[in-house]
Write a structure and sequence with these properties.
Strand content: 5-15%
Helix content: 25-40%
Structural class: mainly alpha
Radius of gyration: 48 Å
Number of strands: 6
Largest sheet: 3 strands, antiparallel
CATH architecture of one domain: Orthogonal Bundle
Number of helices: 11
Amino acid sequence: MSTYLERQQQAFASSLASAASKMQVKRPAPVSPSPSVTSTTSAAAGATPSKKPKRDPGAAIYSQPENTGVGVALGTNIVYAVDYLKKNSGAVTLLRLFSYFNWDKEPEPFQREIVERLRGHPRVAWNPDAALSEQTWRSGTYEHRPVIPNVRDKTALLAHLHRRDDAQGVTVKDLKDGWPDCEDAIAELERDHKILVVRTKKDNHARMVWSNDATLWHAVDAEFQTMWHRVEVPSVDDIVRRLTAVGQKPTSEDPRTKILAAPKEKQKKKRVQRRTGKATNTHMEHLLKDYSHLKR
């Protein structure tokens, strides 16, 4: 039995060896190692360096769009036009405006739309041409219309503040819309006590201005100021306590607070009696009577 098993094992091993000899094994091709940094550097050092071709400075760079400074949308163009009029004080002709933004190369419908929007813009003033009896869409000049018009110096600012019939101040942001460099004039008028200025806590920039009467300002001696600051002012609670002790009514006491602080009496809810429907069964009236008042 053992001999038969040995013969079977030998036959299987021989068949397996013959099959392995007939199979072709494909081995991967050897990969050449990449050159190191030192080898490339040394090779480049020995070779003659090639000159890098110079780039034409006038050639266009296609990796990023050309920054023309003008938007494509019509609304964006109007914003640029208003900003241009704001920076250029005085009247600007339409030809100058179109040539600055290259709108003279655009079709006529686009130009007409620009003109229509500029004439209807609240921050743009259109001045008709006095030499023409009939205006065209190309005639006239354009200029910036500030939020506060005709205020570009100290005299005009004081006159504008005196004309106001309300107690509201004028924001410096609105002043800068037509007078960009008004900070120095505001500081000078504040030193002369002709205006009152509210400034920001962080940067100490002027935020709002009011008119002020310089005749009401009087200089105070430094000695008196020192004595004034030495006076110890009692707290509000101490003042109220002292006034109440002598029978005086403090002005800080609001009589409405007592009314609000008074406890409200709880109102008892009235019990709503349940209304029964119309009795149709007269023979059962004694069963439909309300006996809730007899409940203890």
